Recover the amino acids of this structure.
């Protein structure tokens, strides 16, 4: 059925949305300024708008409410009887808006006063310290708490909103998380100098690596995920010689001569430089990965979390 015969919608009718019936906050602030200063021009100057714009805003408000609010004369502007009543109501609305704004600022201040970070072991031990030092310079009043664990645990904490920002190093990003790549990383096979692989002249074939019992991080760690993916074509990694929950423990076991281990090259800089461990090249296996920052999908990091994310991308 055609609507051509229907009267135009009147914003003053109770069926109209409240936002169509109540003047906007700027118009109410203007009305209060007119009441206080006794001049539309003075009110316009105080609010940083032109007098024609102020006059237009008052007229729109009068049309919306259906009553005259201001009497204009060469001697200035004064409120009508209805205008004085509306001004009293407007004052309460503006005061409520000021209280709302103060509360929102307090929430932002509370958010900006702390930062909860969850990070995989490699990132927590070898990259985060530098980033957090830089963040401390930019935000000296922000208290940072750090949870270090494997990538699966980090994802769980971020999804549960128990961390404002997470850092993972696995093959994939779990559902429910947004992410961005912050760095590239490479896994390295290393042995103690006395191990037979340290004296090999040719790379270890991926199939031989897959069949060798290694010292490994636990399942759920990004390092383990990347190794399993890299050796999937060869039946996956053999049952581990040792399965340890920290990078430091894996390195210590390898340095002692217990067997080969696989870790991020970020974690092996000192050991390789001092020849406490020796890198063993591997043929036919891709052992590279992306390091990612993660947060709940549908949001974006804000406050100190946003600043920390910016620092990671500018320093890697």
């Amino acid at each position: 059925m055609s609507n051509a015969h229907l009267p135009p919608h009147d914003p003053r009718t109770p069926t109209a949305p409240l936002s169509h019936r109540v003047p906007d906050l700027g118009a109410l602030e203007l009305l209060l300024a007119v009441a206080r200063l006794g001049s539309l021009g003075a009110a316009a100057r105080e609010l940083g708008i032109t007098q024609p714009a102020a006059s237009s805003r008052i007229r729109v408000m009068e049309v919306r409410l259906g009553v005259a609010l201001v009497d204009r004369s060469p001697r200035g502007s004064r409120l009508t009887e209805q205008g004085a009543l509306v001004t009293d109501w407007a004052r309460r609305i503006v005061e409520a808006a000021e209280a709302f704004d103060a509360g929102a600022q307090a929430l932002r201040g509370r958010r900006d006063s702390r930062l909860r970070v969850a990070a995989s072991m490699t990132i927590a031990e070898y990259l985060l310290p530098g980033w957090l030092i830089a963040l401390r310079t930019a935000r000296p009043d922000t208290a940072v708490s750090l949870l270090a664990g494997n990538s699966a645990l980090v994802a769980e904490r971020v999804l549960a909103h128990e961390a404002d920002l997470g850092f993972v190093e696995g093959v994939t990003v779990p559902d429910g998380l947004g992410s961005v790549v912050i760095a590239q990383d490479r896994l390295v096979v290393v042995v103690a100098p006395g191990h037979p692989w340290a004296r090999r002249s040719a790379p270890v074939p991926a199939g031989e690596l897959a069949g060798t019992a290694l010292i490994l991080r636990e399942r759920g760690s990004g390092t383990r995920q990347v190794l399993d993916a890299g050796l999937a074509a060869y039946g996956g990694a053999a049952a581990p010689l040792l399965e340890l929950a920290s990078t430091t423990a894996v390195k210590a076991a390898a340095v002692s001569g217990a067997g080969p281990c696989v870790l991020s090259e970020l974690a092996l800089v000192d050991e390789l430089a001092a020849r406490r461990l020796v890198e063993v090249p591997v043929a036919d296996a891709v052992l590279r990965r992306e390091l990612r920052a993660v947060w709940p999908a549908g949001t974006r990091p804000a406050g100190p979390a946003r600043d920390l994310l910016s620092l990671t991308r500018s320093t890697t």
Q: What stands out?
A: The CA atoms of residues 204 and 282 lie 5 Å apart.
